[in-house]
Write a structure and sequence with these properties.
Blueprint lengths: L2 H7 L10 E4 H7 L3 E5 L9 H14 L4 E5 L3 H13 L3 E5 L5 H9 L3 E4 L4 H11 L5 E4 L5 H7 L1 H10 L5 E5 L4 H13 L6 E6 L4 H8 L22 H9 L2 E6 L1 H15 L5 H11 L2 H7 L10 E5 L7 H10 L4
Helix pairs in contact: 1-3, 3-4, 3-7, 7-9, 8-9, 12-13
Amino acid sequence: MDSSLTGCARAEHFHTVTPLLESWALSQVAGTTVFLKCENVQPAGSFKIRGIGHFCQEMAKKGCRHLVCSSGGNAGIAAAYAARKLGIPATIVLPEGTSLQVVRRLQGEGAEVQLTGKVWDEASLKAQELATRDGWVNVPPFDHPLIWEGHASLVRELKAALGTPPGALVLAVGGGGLLAGVSAGLAEVGWQHVPIIAVETQGAHCFNAAVKAGRLVTLPDITSVAKSLGAKTVAARALACVQELEIISEVVEDVQAVSAVQQFLDDERMLVEPACGAALAVIYSGLLGRLQAEGRLRPSLASVVVIVCGGNSIDGGGLQALKARLGQS
């Protein structure tokens, strides 16, 4: 392995310490202070660079010569970004319906893009097949201890910025990598008593289905517009976290998630994916207040942190198309 690569592989990390902003607009709706952890400003557009960057650095140290990743978008962009930083070629395998802007973004990061299958699970099988080649490593989008270890850095930043624990933490669940990482981070900083509101959209609710069944459940199909949440089965580790921390699993409708994207754009002038809108909908749809009224959350919360997970699969035209499809003007 050449020395420049090993030097880069040992670099501090590829993610940035993201802003924690107090949102006046969301605080008004919630009736308590709402902080936004702005993962949408990460160099690869989402929180994914934390875990995937860490994973790729560790693989480079072990002599990986080619990275392959299957992703509905954000994980692939994080893997391509990390590969470029490490000076390693990357092949990204995506479902056939992936937006052109995501494909272009990946190619812009220097990655080779292959389109296979209708959903993430099919692209994943192709990536696993490619990873059997000598020196190739498959980058799991969410289900690996190194990924969770990388995501835990987000909680260390929260601790440094806030000092005292928030009353609740809100995040979106797709495959469960962010949930597993945040859970590990909370335990690490001694904040394991902080409740996590884990949100999904109806039609991409593999975590909620698993929590209700008490075991992993595979959804027959992903019908939600929040394609970044589109794993049919959640990571086993995410389900195990339910036994260790206070995790409130909730499901919102696509319409609520997309409405939250529009309201967030108006309030904060930031455009995020419907996957991220699912987390914001906890505040905008009044779900937070309902959880308090039902006694599932404390009636008075010191503050609430919403992880604005980001996302690359959205633009102005895309938001208008989603609203039209869901009957929102």
